[in-house]
Amino acid sequence: MKTNELEDKLRECVYCRDEQIDKLVSLLFNDDCNVPSLILYGVSSTGKSYLLNQALNLSNKEVIWINLKTCFTTPLLLYRILTHAGVDQDLAYKKGTHISGFLHLLHINISKTEKHVYLVLDQIDQFPEISPILFSMFADLALNTNLSNLSVIFTLSTHPAQYMGTLAVPIVFFPQYMKDEILEICQNTPPVLDFIDETGEETFEDEIELSVWMQYCGFLWNVFGSHCLNNYQAFRDVVDLHWPQFVQPIVKGNVHPADYAQLHKLAKHALTSDLTISRRLHIIEPTKIKYMHDAKSVDLPLLTKYLLISAFLASYNPSRLDAQFFSHGKGSKQRGRKRKNTSNQSLESAKGAKNGTSRTKSTAKLSQLTLGPKAFELERLFAIYYAICPNGRHVLSADVFNQITSLASLKMLLPAHKGSLRSLDSPRFKVNVSREFVIKISKSVGFPLESYLADEPV
């Protein structure tokens, strides 16, 4: 198939990705020059894997597709690649689970075919044992195996710079969908639109049915769009969930599809009903309420736990101490000295009070933990998160902002506005959880929270 024909077919099934289609086809399906490796980068739900899968299927190429989410170790990854390439399972298990044997067996099997083979490592950033060395090995796989008919394609949701080093690998970037693009994709991929009432006596024209679907998508965006954060898959799940209930009055014959005002009224009532809201709430048995005080019973992702710890430190620590606590090579040693000095000062104060020779000035000063949380800027939260999270080297993606939104919706973070905010002001928040709760959260991830808390009076 010619490249221009492939581009036209891809545009018919993949919407709002014209630029990415042109780059992908020119880099992968040009017979004169096939790149040995390629990176498809973009946050989740941006169409990377879908576009690549459609392109490979339409071009009838030989593909080895490995989803790294289901691989847990490097030997398992190498074994799956070899077995998908046609290597005997016993041979791959015995000799292919180390790098040298893997390269040798892969060269033998792929060199037998004259067709171009595409090795797709989908979601490689989710692989637990990913490292720059392993990434470089796969990026140079065609060179290391001396195979001119092999191309390796990576898909990532985090920025590839942390893995590439000095590698020169072409990158195709997939930006997040905007509102108009999400609505266009939804409107071009409708469900079955056969509105036949229960009596079977009335059918409707396709134009009317499609108009109902398009208006429905726009209505749902006004209700849920701001909560989906331009995530197409999240919005599509909501659209598919409420669609049967939206068209139920049409199926029952109570409302004509052209009467969209009545449909809108009924749908608005249904989406705000107690039944719809209760489906989004966790029903807790009275006997289990006591366990809610235990932080271990709260199912939070690891990233969210570190964000909550960072927010607590940002609320209760003075900003002037951030360099002392969170700079590399500092923090723990200085913190230990500070605690020792603080204890000595308390001992001396107690002795002085006993002898009646000293009036402690700290009686008029209160700890920050007593005064409550203070507002902090979002940039300061990110800086602390980078410093304390073991995976802080990863570049911030939309997942971090999604988790902050989740914490705000759970009322664990509260927005703090001082007067009227200008458009250029950074968002400010306060933490809204107790110290005991955060201590339990920190223990669950093995973080020494007490070593990073300032106990000096303010």
UniProtKB/TrEMBL annotation:
Gene (UniProt): orc5
Family to which this protein belongs: Belongs to the ORC5 family.
Stretches with biased composition (Basic residues): 330-341
Record domain Orc1-like AAA ATPase: where: 14-142
Keywords from the named record: ATP-binding, DNA replication, Nucleotide-binding, Nucleus
Biased composition (Polar residues): 355-364
Annotated spans, Disordered: 327-364
GO molecular function: DNA replication origin binding
Annotated compartments: Nucleus
Record GO biological process: DNA replication initiation
SUPFAM superfamilies named in the record: P-loop containing nucleoside triphosphate hydrolases
InterPro entries cross-referenced by the UniProt entry: AAA_16, ORC5, ORC5_C, ORC5_lid, P-loop_NTPase
Highest taxon listed in the record's lineage: Eukaryota
Gene3D superfamilies documented for this protein: P-loop containing nucleotide triphosphate hydrolases (3.40.50.300)
Domain Origin recognition complex subunit 5 C-terminal residue range list: 300-453
Name this polypeptide is given: Origin recognition complex subunit Orc5
Segments forming domain ORC5 lid: 213-270
Pfam families reported for this sequence: AAA_16 (PF13191), ORC5_C (PF14630), ORC5_lid (PF21639)
Single GO cellular component term: nuclear origin of replication recognition complex
